[in-house]
Write a structure and sequence with these properties.
The radius of gyration is 21 Å and the shape is elongated. The chain is an alpha+beta fold and 152 residues long. The chain has a 6-stranded antiparallel sheet with strand order 1-2-3-4-5-6. The chain contains 4 helices and 6 strands, in the order βαβββββααα.
């Protein structure tokens, strides 16, 4: 007898109800009309249903999720440290980088860069600060290579 390890998640279309099948039809129509999101890898794309949330979505071999947002498919993000979930536009609006773990801030800024989204404050300020910090670190490393510190 096979034991189900995750009963709230399924990729088995037989587990989808008529509501979920209609939602999947809408997802497939958007895929045909507009394609997958640019940052969504098309390897191993399959339909999935979360019984707890009621969401139907596409998932791929990299565990990226694409869902309907308005009239198109968008990547639904999950930040790596605190697990904040949502479309990137919502994460940028609802979250403040000063309140997040550094890994989550880097993830969101990188996703915005990949998706070609122009950042606004406070996210833009945080990105600029990060760039300046990285440049300072690079200059320090270069100085240490050119002018090694004497051993005492």
């Amino acid at each position: 007898m096979k034991t189900e390890t995750c009963s709230y998640y399924t990729e088995n279309l037989a587990d989808f109800g008529f509501r979920e099948i209609r939602m999947l039809r809408d997802i497939l129509d958007l895929w045909v009309t507009n394609g997958l999101p640019d940052t969504f890898d098309n390897q191993g794309v399959r339909a999935a249903f979360n019984r707890n949330s009621g969401y139907v979505f596409l998932v791929n071999d990299d565990y990226q999720v694409a869902m309907v947002n308005g009239e198109r498919l968008q990547v639904h993000h999950n930040t790596p440290y605190d697990g904040h979930e949502g479309f990137l536009s919502d994460l940028l609006t609802d979250l403040n980088p000063d309140d997040l773990h550094e890994d989550d801030v880097e993830y969101i800024i990188h996703a915005a860069d990949q998706e070609g989204i122009d950042l606004c404050p406070p996210w833009l300020d945080t990105k600029i600060d990060k760039i300046l910090e990285d440049e300072d670190e690079s200059l320090d490393e270069a100085d240490n290579q050119i002018y090694p510190q004497p051993e005492l």
